[in-house]
Amino acid sequence: MWTEAVAARLSITGSAKAVFRSLVLDGPSTRPNMGSALGLSRPTMSAAIAELENLGYVEMIGAVRGPLGRSASQYRVGPQAGHVMAVDAGSTSIRLRVSTLDRRLLYSHVHRLPMRQFEVSAEVSRAVAAEVAAALAATLPEWGPLSTLGIAVPTRVVGPDGDAEASRQNVVFTAFTPPQQTTVLLENNVNCAAVAEMHYGAAQGEETFSYVQIGLKIGMGLVLGGQLIRGRYGAAGEIGHLAFPFAPGTEPRPGEVEHYLGTEALMARVHADWSPDDGAPPLDTTELLLMAGNGGVGAQRHVAKHAADIGAIVASCVSVVDPGVVVLGGGFGSSPLLLPGVSDTVRRLSYSAEVRSSDLGSDATVLGIERLAMERGLLLALGETI
Amino acid sequence: MWTEAVAARLSITGSAKAVFRSLVLDGPSTRPNMGSALGLSRPTMSAAIAELENLGYVEMIGAVRGPLGRSASQYRVGPQAGHVMAVDAGSTSIRLRVSTLDRRLLYSHVHRLPMRQFEVSAEVSRAVAAEVAAALAATLPEWGPLSTLGIAVPTRVVGPDGDAEASRQNVVFTAFTPPQQTTVLLENNVNCAAVAEMHYGAAQGEETFSYVQIGLKIGMGLVLGGQLIRGRYGAAGEIGHLAFPFAPGTEPRPGEVEHYLGTEALMARVHADWSPDDGAPPLDTTELLLMAGNGGVGAQRHVAKHAADIGAIVASCVSVVDPGVVVLGGGFGSSPLLLPGVSDTVRRLSYSAEVRSSDLGSDATVLGIERLAMERGLLLALGETI
DNA sequence: TTAATTAGTTAAGGTGCCTAACACTCCCTG
DNA sequence: CAGGGAGTGTTAGGCACCTTAACTAATTAA
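YS: structure for the whole thing
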């Protein structure tokens, strides 16, 4: 086995790395454009492009003519740069996307699970294995090597020095063995959604923000200075464990915020408190929101109460990290009906933070893990692994 | 005016920067030591030292002989690198330190304020002006230029694009004009204490931790990945604004945590609840802690209760950012008597975090702002200003 | 067809690091 | 007290990676 490619990887010039990074992150471009953007001279651009073309990291895709002068050739990321596979091992479905490092979608599939999974189970693992196998079978040679496989899981995720047993992050591998020669990247699903909001959603252009997901469970993803914050044990954003109930004379119970703010407890309160004058009670949160949106007074009261409770949680997060912007997501949290109530409570309790609703929907997580896999693939291609 | 020095600053080679940084951060050293630590060859070390000596950034301070062979000359930071002044504009005293970039103390003074200041006032500003003037008068030519003046203030601090009126951070300048040609660095006092804990205190060697200060007021300083987290509006760590009281059926009130956990409210509860069997009630928290340490049952009960409350706050912080290590500081918080109670509550409510007591005492803040000023001075000397 | 304009290449040079080889200083030994 | 071993510091030469200057190539407007 000859290791020319490996040797070559370790000696990419700084300018070539910058050009490649630019093509990955900003999409196809011409030499003059990248040269002026990166502050590189034309000879250097020549050398960088030649170097990357030799590696197959870059390919010409045509010419662009301006109003005057010779037309410039345009380049994009080439096949040898590899591609990534992103999997969202969710509770109701497995979402999978295969794409190039510069985010050209090569393959995608959504598999609905037969029944809701409350945690990562062997059944989820089997479904992931089947979906990944299907994607691998559909792989075409011109996609190049599979560089990174990213998997979003609903557990906290620790690094190689952490206790992976305690976090249960590896349950996804009970019935699934990742392909060889591929880097595997595991990330918490809420963190992934936060990453997606940063790049494609409500937090575009924000360096610092917090993403709060409210659904069956609650969680937070934190981005500070463009960096995803994971915490020492991968437990940053586990706001289900905020002290609650917390008041003079009461004793907080672990995980109680999650129980109290999750949709099941909410619906239980709605049903317990529903007045017959308001008609039949809603069956789930979707109906509750629908009724509130249609002017149902009882529904609106419950939504407003819940918005205030969510606002208190958000205010606590704002008080700790001051993110400036808070994006509300998740099945329940992303409803714009919550926005005024949450916003008011936050403004009343803490320093200002702009509260927004997510609009990425259920694709947020898979888009986020795809993005993280692409970033890892970029580092791998450049030989800049940690 | 000739700008040779400025021009020279802008063209320091990378190796010289690395050598200078090493001398600043790790103290005096020899060429061979730094060369092997930084991975630089002997010719490169020669060039770097020559370059820095020409600028006056470095000076030889003697020779070190090993067991064998020629002795190596030792270098340290030179006068032209400048020095920094650090001021803690505290509530009971103004603490001032002048030191070189490599932390050789040149001058220090503590000025006790005639009466406790609950916020930055004109009186504090006048005292700062007097202390700085005294320090400037004591300045010797061989200290080199005053590069940075750091001031720690008990307000949040926003950057140049923030609303400095709202933060009241500039009140310290009402009666005080900083010297010309000097960079002024303003930082929140709790953040400063956190920085001191990281470098000289209970969080030495930790990349990620949280510092919780409990005294008359409460606050938190957050360090993630070695970086001090300030937040979008400088309000990160304002845990006095955590949602409280927060329980079903109650409505949180802004800033209520601070009122409830601050020492004044604590002592009010102690007095209201004091049993005559336990003798005369304590006059302040120092006495309360003393009585608890001496086995006073009533005092111990109150300390334990307060520790549990602090534990709940800490658990909330841990749930949001998962710092791994929490250092307790401040007049009341740094008492080791609190440690078991806080620790137990945190363990019960959230993912694990190690809780420690600070032992830097009342110097923490001035040591932290000194450190930040030194780091800024280093960047300025290297022409790496943002 | 020619001039103007932009794209890309070739040639020459500078910066910042390296290795190799030599010179210097220190201590130990015979 | 000369000689040698070991570590420190300098000189010479070279390489990697960027630059500017000047050229060639392609394209449009006049």
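YS: worth flagging: The longest helix of chain A spans residues 297-321.
IM: good catch. Also The CA atoms of residues 94 and 127 of chain A lie 7 Å apart.
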